[in-house]
Amino acid sequence: MRQLLDIVLLFKEYLVLIACILISVALLATNDTPQIRAIRSVAVVSVGFVQDVLGFIPDYFSLKKENTILRERNVTLADEVSLLRESKLENFRLRQMLALKQRAAFTYVAANVIGKNVQPMRATITLDAGETDGVKYNMPIVTDAGLVGRVIATSKHYAIGQLLLHKDFRVSARVQRARADGILYWNGERCEMKNVPRTHDVKQGDAIITSSYSTIYPEGIKIGVIASAHVEPGALFHTIAVEPTVDFSTLEEVFVITQVPDSARVALEQTRTK
User: Fold this and answer.
1) What is the model's pLDDT at position 269?
2) Residue 112 to residue 135: CA distance in whole angstroms
3) CA-CA distance, 113 to 128, in Å (whole number)?
4) Which of 107, 126, 166, 264 is the most exposed place for a label (fewest CB within 10 A)?
5) Distance CA 147, CA 248 (A)
């Protein structure tokens, strides 16, 4: 008891001040005179003004945190949209290739393009399908858009394809409407079709397909369309420029036609040419 009294005596000034403040607050709360009401109004307005002025401080930090969260979510959604768009395009390409596979009577091996050689005149692609998948030398490579090239090298799990845009590529071709035959090749700048006599009616926009004269490529595969055709004065053949139907810059999936040349036909034709 003595200790409690000592503490009260030690802090008596503070205790008196607190008691006075409490009594004042109680009197102000219970008093309803016009002067007290005016004081209350001024105090409420002042406190409200201070709160409005200082209210942006917690809002600023909460908005900054919310902005960071929204930015992270925006990046995540952008990645998802990109993946969905890529999946949509891949699905569209695969549907087209599946329609080709169902439409034709050939046997196909699907392959992805995992490498490209873009050297001028040496255009090749690397495929993720090889001998274990049934891919062999000289098999044709196609997409739903048309002829891509042929297989020129194989390993157990991979293959190299020579593109239509390679300087050594040759294919026996035919103007579908006019039934005019010739040889299609890449001259370093564009595809041309040669040996088409000037007497044949060929026009810009005519479709070019593989002919029945080839021992490598099945007949009727799309190659391209005639971009221009004319006859030089005194020439015996048309000068024909061909625009391929395959977009080689966006090539991602292809089919390898598992057809090998008929050995009996090849042997007979080689005997005839000796």
Assistant:
1) 62
2) 13
3) 7
4) 264
5) 10
Domains of the chain, start order: 2-54 (no CATH), 108-260 (2.40.10.340)
Alpha-carbon dihedral angle through residues 93, 96, 101, 104, given to the nearest 10 degrees: -140
Q: Is the alpha carbon torsion for 211, 212, 214, 219 positive or negative?
A: positive
Give the confidence band of 141 by pLDDT, cuts at 50, 70, 90: very high
Tell me the two tokens of residue 64: 């900054």
Could you give the 3-state DSSP secondary structure of residue 256? strand
Token pair 């490209």 is found at: 116
| SS3 call for 75 | helix
What angle (nearest 5°) sits at the alpha carbon of residue 148, between those of residues 143 and 154?
100
Tokens of 106: 């050939």
Average pLDDT, the chain: 80
Asked if residue 217 lies in contact with residue 134, where contact means CB atoms within 8 angstroms, the answer is no
Is the pLDDT at 40 greater than 70, yes or no? no
Q: Contacts by 220-227 with C-beta closer than 8 Å and gap 24+? A: 221/140, 221/142, 221/146, 221/147, 222/145, 222/146, 222/147, 223/146, 223/147, 223/164, 223/171, 223/173, 223/184, 224/146, 224/191, 226/175, 226/193, 226/202, 227/190
Contact predicate 114/128, CB 8 Å: yes
User: Which residues partner with 174 through β-bridges?
Assistant: 181, 209
Are 217 and 210 a contacting pair, CB within 8 Å?
Answer: yes
Average pLDDT over residues 6-11: 65
The residues pairing with 208 across neighbouring beta strands, listed in sequence order, are 175, 224
Q: Is 108 helix (H, G, I), strand (E, B) or coil?
A: strand
> Both tokens of residue 39?
């004081």
pLDDT of 274 higher than 70: no
